[in-house]
Amino acid sequence: KKRSQHGAFNRGVALAALMAVAVVSRGWAGSYYVSTSGNDSSGTGVSGNPWASISHAIAVTASGDTILVGGGIYTESVSFAGRTNVIVRGGYDASWNWTPGSEMTVVFGNGSSPVVIPAAASYNRLSCLTLKGGTAGNRAGIELTGAVSNLFVEGCTIVSNYYGIYSSANVPQT
């Protein structure tokens, strides 16, 4: 049988279309940016147009993504509710160089809520952040509510909270 010269071309087109579908469906993890000068409404999460809050970044990114947080103070309560395998890493300067010793990234709970709530989440990571201000009503720097498994906290400072890390009674933690 004689082979068509167009067979290889058609297979190539089909492969390219399949790869385009994979990219559109977010098949690969990415890095996204948060800065005190960012904007949650008009930001896109890229280094030149970052988001303003860690909570927004967690809400719109996917499993496997990394959120790079610039130095500064972020007044918010960060929730990982239902999220899996998201990394939040502080200590970046204005040019997005990682300088954790000189660029302090502070998440300030403002005394009204826990600073970080990893409820019903697994395999998430907090790195190079200062968690403070979870003080009112027995609040914590990290408050474990709902089943939480494998929360990794590395290079973080948890200070000036009612509790550093608090786990609700009868809530399984691993």
Notes on the structure:
This protein has helices spanning about 5-25, 55-60; strands at about 30-35, 65-70, 70-75, 80, 85-90, 105-110, 115, 125, 130, 140-145, 150-155, 155-160, 165. It is built from 2 helices and 13 strands, in the order αβαββββββββββββ. Helices cover about 15% and strands about 30% of the residues. The radius of gyration is 20 Å and the shape is globular. The longest helix has 19 residues, at about 5-25. The N and C termini lie far apart (about 60 Å). The chain is of the alpha/beta class and about 170 residues long. The model is unreliable at about 10-25 (pLDDT under 50).
Number of strands: 13
Oligomer: single chain
SS class: alpha/beta
Q: Which term fits the overall shape?
A: globular
> Distance between the terminal alpha carbons, to the nearest Å?
62 Å
Largest sheet: 5 strands, parallel
Q: If you compute it from the alpha carbons, what radius of gyration comes out, rounded to the nearest whole angstrom?
A: 20 Å
Instruction: Enumerate the strands of the largest sheet in spatial order, edge to edge or round the barrel.
Output: 1-2-5-8-11
Percent of residues in β-strands? 25-35%
The topology string of helices and strands comes to: HEHEEEEEEEEEEEE
Low-confidence stretches: 8-26
> Tally the helices: what do you get?
2
The helix content is 10-25%
Average pLDDT confidence is 83
